[in-house]
Structure formats: structure tokens, C-alpha cells
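Lecture 7, part 2: worked example. A protein chain together with adenosine-5'-triphosphate.
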Amino acid sequence: MKTTPTTAPAVEFTSAGKTYGTVRALDGLTVSLYPGETVALLGPNGAGKSTTLDLLLGLRTPDAGGRVRLFGTTPRQAVTDGRVGAMLQSGGLMEGVRVREIVSLACDLHPRGYPVEQVLETAGLTGIAERTVDRLSGGQEQRVRFALATAGDSDLLVLDEPTTGMDVTARRAFWSAMRAQAAQGRTVLFATHYLEEADEVADRVLVLHRGRLLADGSAAEIKAMAGVRRVGFTLDAVPDGVLEAQLRALPGVTGTELAGAVVRMRSSDADATVHALYALGLYPRDLEVTGLGLEQAFVTLTSRAEQQGAQAARPAGTDQNTEKKAATK
Ligand SMILES: Nc1ncnc2c1ncn2[C@@H]1O[C@H](COP(=O)(O)OP(=O)(O)OP(=O)(O)O)[C@@H](O)[C@H]1O
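Predicted complex, written out as C-alpha cells:
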């Protein structure tokens, strides 16, 4: 659920755009994030996620007319004040430096730094604190980045694909630490391609597509927005060969799959589909109507937007091949 804005926003994007040459990476983003929210930023490759995080951290400035504010001030000021902890994909760790040294430096530099041992412990680094950072595995490197992001008492944590390379145990520990951060009133914003993670962890999901905010809501709301549900059942007897065609022709049905007597369908109007199923004289057993998973909802929403974009971009009189391609995507 979107938080009712009773408190001042931690993050405020107002018509924020970013153009690189001819590429419109971010197209007028307007969104506010509030204290205590854990927000997942999703989007296909090139959707504008990293650009959004760069603007948020003051690493880039928005195009004229757009504005980004953190805690009522500029991103740079908020970062200088130690209100933001960030874990980015890019940027190597200094070679030859020990884990403890680099984490200790981050704790010292933070205006409200935590004791280094505590930060090492939370990030699961105590056992490898004396190792130099160039001798770490990918997952261990991520844990060092996590420690750097949580070296002090920040109000906002910005994480770009934070769990890439982490094993299951490290991931669990990571998200449990993040939940604790949010429970203390911090805002956690993370970009990810792991949709199960977003589904499990985020209480709000933003979907970017071609630099625009395509959807904003809880994972359940995003799933509902896709408007497609799964209908599954078993038939006692499969009457004859025309059955699959009959099922496909039912109202709302967008896909069918038959494996013996087990039927799986997708429908944009599950109520009408089930009603028509009985009207056909079929008696479905173990009938189940479920929503899509977040991943399937995401694919449905983004490919629908892709189709609409292709149609809107098509000049009058475009040949039919383009139309067919767009329609079958
Ligand atoms: N420095 C740059 N110069 C030119 N174009 C850029 C630059 N940085 C990003 N872009 C373009 O801007 C668009 C958005 O890129 P961005 O990195 O923000 O997307 P993303 O959602 O983070 O993608 P990914 O999931 O692949 O990391 C892309 O088309 C990308 O090619």
C-alpha cells in the first residue's frame, strides 16, 4: 500500500527528466517516498533505474524543469550530511586495502558512524575482516559494499541490485538487516531484477519503462494491474479433440495448456471464463483461480506498454509487417 503522506517525504522527484544525447533515459518522473517504506524499483534493461538512483544521489543533475529533493534539501547536501547510505553496482573497491580498514574509514567519515565491529558483524564480514578486498569473492565484495552503505546512521538507503552474487544465506541475512533498517523508520530504495525478492521484501513497487513510471503500488496491486488471472482445473474425462479449441474460445481466455486431463488457462476475466466453462457442460474439479506472480505481472505490464508504445510511435500508413510484429510480441 502506498503510504498516506502524513509525514514529509524522504525523497521527492518532481518532473525529473534526464537526457543523454538523443536518449531520453528518464522522462518526467514525479514520485515521493516516505520514511519507513521499503521500495523496489523494477524495470527492463535500459528503463532508467540507474539514472533514477544517480539523480537521487546527486551523481547527475536532472534536466532543466525537473527537481529532486531529499529531506527537503538537495541530494548533495543530504549525502554530505550523512543522511544517505548507498550501495552501487559500479565502482571497484580500493585494491590492497583490508576489509576492516575500508569499513573503518567509512565509519569514521560518516557524521554519525557506527562502531566498526558492529558494522562488520551485521554485514557478515567479521571472519574475513583482515583479508584484502582484491581477494574476495563476488558475494563477499557485495557484503563489503553493504557494510559501506550501513556504516552510519543514515535515513535513506539506496541499493542498486544489492544481492547480485550473494548466496541464499547471505541474501537472507541482507534482507533481514534491511527490514530492521526500515522498521527503525528509514527509507530503503532498491533496484533489482530479482522479482521474487521485490515481491517478498518491498511494501511498495515502482515499475519503470522507457524512463516513465508505469506502475506504483504494493506487489499485490501491481499483480492486479496486470489484470490477468490463472484458472486451473482437472476434467474427469476429456470429451473429444475439439476441447482445446473450445476452451481457447471461452470469454477472457488469453492462453491454454492441456496436459492430459489437467487444464491451465490464463484469463483477463476469470469470472466469465469459469461461468462459460460450466455452460459448456464441463465439470471442472480442483478449480483454482489465482493471480499472476509478480514476475509474470511485470512481463505482462511491460510488454503491454511496449506494444502500446510501438503502436503510438507508428506513423500513419506504416506497413502491416510492423503491426503484426507489435501485435505478437
Ligand atoms: N552515460 C550515458 N550516456 C548515454 N546513454 C546512457 C548513459 N547512461 C545511460 N544511458 C542510456 O539511458 C537509458 C537508461 O539507462 P539506465 O542505466 O538508467 O537503465 P537501467 O534501468 O538501470 O538499465 P539496466 O537494468 O540495464 O541496468 C538506456 O537507454 C541507456 O543506454
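Confidence is low (pLDDT under 50) at residues 316-329. The CA atoms of residues 11 and 98 lie 34 Å apart. Keep this in mind for problem set question 3.
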